[in-house]
Amino acid sequence: MKIGAENKKQVRWMIALLALALLVGIYNFVDFGSSSAAPASTSTGAQAKKSGAPQLADSTLDPRLRLDILAASQNKKYEAGRNIFRMEELRLEAVNAPVRKDYTVEMPPTPTPTPPPPPITLKFYGFASKPNEAKRIFLDDEGEVFVARQGDIVERRYKVVQINNTNVVIEDVLYSNKQTIQVTPK
User: Fold this and answer.
1) Backbone dihedral region of 106: left (phi > 0), alpha (psi from -120 to 50 degrees) or beta?
2) In which order are the strands placed within the sheet that holds 144-149?
3) Which of 33, 69, 144, 165 has the maximal Cβ count within 10 Å?
């Protein structure tokens, strides 16, 4: 009959780990007489007894019931208008200064109007068309000639929106400005 104890090294490790777990469990659940709470300070109690008034705010972590502090808080009378959520409420004094009537209102400066977009410098140069193809147009920009179809962008700035027999609609993409160029023979 086999009970699973063939590997002696594994059995020894298992026994050692069980003993360690047992020691940790005992340490966590048994109180050895040490306390994590700080001992009560005797100097603050002596100062309270010398002054004759019970101390209302104690900074120690003493869990015992302090009847003198409880009695002092019970003797405190509620006053109408007192804010119980604040330690001290600020009192604002009324200002009785005369109101000035000779003031002037400064208007904000008038915004400068935005300048109109620059005119499109392209000029009509000519047409080119073949049967069953889109109409092409030649555009001149200070000596440089461009060939474009409807929807093309010229000089990375001007889009050919529409080509007609009498005019061409060009849009300046940078300024969203449309301009119509008349088709005139040269």
Assistant:
1) beta
2) 123-128, 136-141, 144-149
3) 69
